[in-house]
Design goal:
alpha/beta; Rossmann fold; Alpha-Beta Plaits; six-stranded mixed β-sheet; 38 helices; globular
Length: 914
């Protein structure tokens, strides 16, 4: 900006900011409690509030596009014709954004026949005439043509940066190598694929910059065309008409609006009335925006009523609590007795590690009310406070002897630390993380910081990294800081509990939460604490074999190619495959033609090198992921591996495992078996594996109530042979292996919305044949087709789907106008109902089996849950009892119209059972 302070006009590129906000959260969309996407609305107004807070504009206006065609469409019909329609859940947020702008009295201008960019250009011209500096908030490079001494662009942070960047004439020259007044001609040469501006084919950014640096502008370039190399001259001559057409398309109009005075009420910042936007933010459940608005309001605008402590208001939800340090045993005893009277308390540990298998407590916090909590420091600032043993005994008395129910955020962590500390058998009552997941299974984000901001009026929690210096422990933190951080955890947990318990009741999910998911927290915690024995020597022998095989594969590759090269170098592999061996190229990316797995699988059918590369990659992945890693994950105290189960990791309800992920070990390969072979039972024990047979197909048959599909299960027939017999019209005894393989692929594929294209790829058959197989399938199993259609129709009406136990998943994309997005949502809703219901049954089975074992006083322990399989470590003398118990409990876990079947195996290693 200029040195002399001028008034500033901030012009928001409305749709640019809306789109950027939406796609910033594309992988983890922000949603309200009903599952509606609010990413665009949140991002738009968060940015707008940040601009106002940090840059303090004098005047403000939002420039918007309208749906009407512009003069550019009339001039050049293909203009912007290749753009996909905006996703429906983005499109649906635009009227809400307009509504907030209107309510808050924020000027916004959109004019049929003109683009927002033309409005922005006109506004900057008007501002310059009045001695006002313009700052365009935009990421659009087209608008850089407007930059001059009193017109700037405030551009979004670049990769690796956090702050917006102010771009003036010097920055344009630095970034692009051309002056701002050359941007129009630069765009005329390179074109713009997103807007379908043609440009000059073959002239890229580097070439365009070189031409403009040498000749100055488009006219001069064509005046000196005889000085250029023949190839460049040819490109320019053949596209001259398109170049000038492009210049007309990208040149912005400066006379679309005429604002003679920006100092009127319409544009002044003191005319903005954010308070009127608050009800609209409340409707969208955008609590953090309400807080941000509150922070931006001058104190004089807040009435006395606003300042009252109303627990139902967003301001009350977002206020900080009062936190106390408990530094005497007498006070700790009194407080814990008070908690015991209430019978329930929020609880949270502070420890030496995030790994609960080695973590030692340095303090704990608790509360049974909102906005107040207590922290008990065992050690703080390097100084000892409450003696650990006495604190532990008082805690045991409260939690175990007086049966106080525990509320926590990620309760598995605190439960496991309690168990290892010697406080065994806590009553896990309410996990706020699990509740948040049930209420919004599609969110994928359930940490306390996010939940507090989303559900507690935009509350900003104290972050660990801001309290604990790098390379320090929480026990090093001075007491005052430790109290504010640790007690806040208990307070926020309690506040979330109060909110979520009401929401679960309103959504009729209390039974699902209390009777299924919360009991599972304890079962999973016990499984994780127990771990599984691991025989390093077995894996070492396999490692030696894998290293030799990798060496042999490399040698074979070099012999076939005729020279050595770096197999892991994408560039060198591209040269070998596509230049030296002349293999057909596929899709192209930034580094050249793709060498991704799907490409290599296609090429492997015609050449040995891609086949060998795939073998090499599979072995390297196996070695890096398991062979080298698993031995390092053996706990030194227990000599067992302790995986961690994520209860909130999938939107369907299935459990996932990490550190290590035991569910991803290859099931059908010999190499996968050798890895599983290193997992062994303890001395005097045997592994028992119990696996639901085809549970997802059983669930599909039950839900679809299809007689043809149910028949095979009711008669104990092989479902894939049965399906093959029906779709190929042959007797089951005459079904060929290839026909069964096709039927099996279709059986599982229909649950995932498999297309003829995908089926043809998987089976390597013509697409026409694949389409015929699918049509025959649905003709024979019409009930399945009807079921899938009904699920999709219900989802379109309600925006969500649910499983047999009432687990919900919001899928608002089902109503999208974007065909790809809608098709994906249609696959998701069907799969969620089937896979989610199967997950419900597996969880019920785990509960029933564990409770039956406890009733009968057995010493057998459940170790692992992998997909549809449970693995038990069974004392040899309990094996027969367990086989009968497991079969009985799992097969009666849930009553379907066709029986659940369980297959069992025993072995002295995990690999031995498969």
């Amino acid at each position: 900006m200029s040195e002399k302070k001028k008034p500033t006009l901030y012009i928001i590129d409305g749709y640019g900011l809306i789109y950027r906000s939406y796609f910033a959260f594309i992988n983890r969309p922000l949603r309200d409690m009903e599952g509606n996407n609010v990413s665009a609305m949140y991002g738009f107004f968060s940015t707008l509030l940040m601009i106002i807070r940090e840059y303090k504009p004098d005047y403000l206006v939002v420039a918007m596009d309208t749906a009407a065609p512009t003069f550019r469409h009339e001039l050049y019909e293909p203009y912007k014709a290749n753009r996909d329609a905006a996703p429906q859940d983005l499109h649906s947020q635009v009227p809400k954004i307009h509504e907030v702008l209107e309510a808050a009295n924020i000027p916004h201008i959109g004019m049929d026949g003109w683009e927002a960019d033309d409005i922005i250009a006109s506004l900057t011209t008007c501002a310059s005439k009045q001695g006002i500096e313009s700052i365009m908030v935009t990421g659009d490079k087209d608008l850089l043509q407007l930059v001059q001494t009193d017109v700037f662009a405030l551009r979004p942070p670049r990769k690796g940066e956090k702050k917006y960047r102010l771009v003036g004439p010097d920055e344009v020259l630095e970034d692009f190598g051309i002056r701002a007044n050359q941007v129009i001609d630069y765009l005329s040469l390179i074109g713009d694929s997103s807007d379908n501006v043609p440009g000059v084919a073959g002239i890229g950014p580097k070439g365009a910059v070189k031409l403009l640096q040498e000749y100055g502008d488009l006219n001069a370039i064509y005046d000196h065309i005889d000085e250029m190399t023949p190839s460049v001259a040819k490109k320019l001559i053949s596209a001259k008409e398109l170049a000038y057409l492009s210049r007309t398309l990208v040149t912005l109009k400066h006379d679309v609006v005429d604002i003679t005075d920006f100092s009127t009420d319409r544009f002044r910042m003191d005319s903005v009335d954010w308070e009127k936007a608050i009800p609209l933010f409340e409707q969208a459940n955008a609590k953090s925006l309400i807080t941000a608005v509150g922070a931006s309001l001058p104190a004089s605008t807040q009435s006395e009523e606003d300042e009252k402590e109303d627990d139902s208001s967003s301001a009350a939800l977002a206020k900080a609590g009062t936190y106390h340090a408990v530094v005497s045993l007498d006070e700790l005893k009194r407080l814990l007795e008070e908690m015991a009277v209430g019978g329930v308390m929020a609880f949270d540990f502070e420890t030496t590690s995030i790994d609960e298998m080695v973590a030692e407590p340095v303090g704990f916090s608790f509360t049974n009310r909102s906005f107040e909590a207590w922290y008990v420091p065992l050690v703080a600032g390097g100084e000892a406070y409450i003696p650990a043993e006495q604190a532990k005994e008082l805690l045991r008395s409260c939690i175990i002897e007086k049966s106080v129910r525990i509320i926590g955020q990620n309760l598995k962590y605190d439960y496991k630390v309690l168990e290892r500390w010697g406080v065994s058998g806590a009553n896990l009552y309410f996990d706020t993380m699990v509740a948040a997941w049930l209420l919004d299974a599609a969110s994928g984000i359930y940490n306390m910081d996010y939940l507090a901001e989303k559900y507690l009026g935009g509350y900003k929690t104290v972050h660990y990294k801001d309290v604990v210096p790098k390379d320090s422990l929480f026990s090093d933190v001075p007491l005052e800081k430790a109290v504010n951080y640790a007690a806040e955890d208990a307070d926020i947990t309690w506040r979330l509990y109060e909110k979520f318990s009401k929401a679960l009741e309103k959504r009729k999910m209390v039974s699902l939460f209390e009777d299924l998911e919360m009991p599972l927290v304890k079962i999973l915690s016990d499984m994780e604490l127990r771990g599984i024995s691991f025989d390093r020597k077995r894996l070492e022998a396999f490692d030696t074999d894998v290293v030799k095989r990798l060496s042999d594969i490399e040698r074979q590759i070099y012999e076939e190619v005729g020279h050595e090269f770096n197999i892991n170098s994408t560039k060198q592999l591209q040269e070998v495959l596509f230049q030296e061996r002349g293999l057909p190229t596929g899709k192209k990316n930034k580094t050249g033609f793709s060498t991704a797995t799907d490409t290599l699988e296609r090429l492997a059918e015609i050449d040995i090198i891609p086949r060998l590369i795939l073998q090499n990659r599979a072995l390297v992945k196996l070695k890096n992921t398991y062979i080298d890693t698993l031995p390092q994950m053996v706990n030194h105290q227990t000599n067992r591996i302790h995986t961690s189960y994520t209860q909130t990791g999938t939107a369907t309800g299935r459990l996932s495992s990490r550190n290590p992920n035991l569910q991803n070990i290859p099931i059908r390969s010999e190499d996968g078996r050798k890895i599983r072979d290193a997992f062994v039972p303890g001395h005097g024990h045997t592994f028992l594996s119990a696996d639901y047979s085809q549970i997802e197909l059983v669930v599909l048959a039950h839900l679809a109530d299809d007689a043809g599909l149910k028949e095979a299960f009711l008669h104990g027939e092989d479902i894939h042979t049965h399906t093959a017999a029906l779709i190929f019209g042959v007797h089951p005894d005459l079904v060929m292996p290839e026909q069964r393989r096709i039927a099996k692929t279709i059986n599982f594929g229909v649950m995932y919305g498999m297309s003829a294209f995908r089926l043809s790829n998987e089976l390597q058959i013509p697409r026409k044949d694949a389409q015929t197989f699918i049509e025959n399938y649905f003709a024979r199993f019409s009930g399945v087709n009807d079921f899938m259609r009904q699920v999709r129709e219900h989802a379109e009406k309600s925006g969500k789907v649910s499983t047999i136990l009432g687990r919900e998943r919001a899928v608002p994309e089902i109503s999208s106008r974007n065909k790809m997005e809608k098709a994906s949502a249609e696959r998701i809703v069907v799969n969620t109902v089937i896979q989610g219901s199967a997950a419900d049954i597996m969880k019920l089975a785990m509960l029933k089996v564990v409770r039956a074992m406890e009733r009968e006083g057995l010493k057998t322990r459940l170790l692992l849950q992998v997909h549809d399989e449970l693995i038990f470590e069974v004392p040899d003398d309990e094996l027969t009892t367990m086989q009968l118990l497991v079969k009985r409990e799992m097969e009666s876990a849930y009553e379907l119209s066709i029986p659940l079947r369980v297959s069992m195996e025993v072995g002295h290693s995990w690999g031995e059972m498969h």
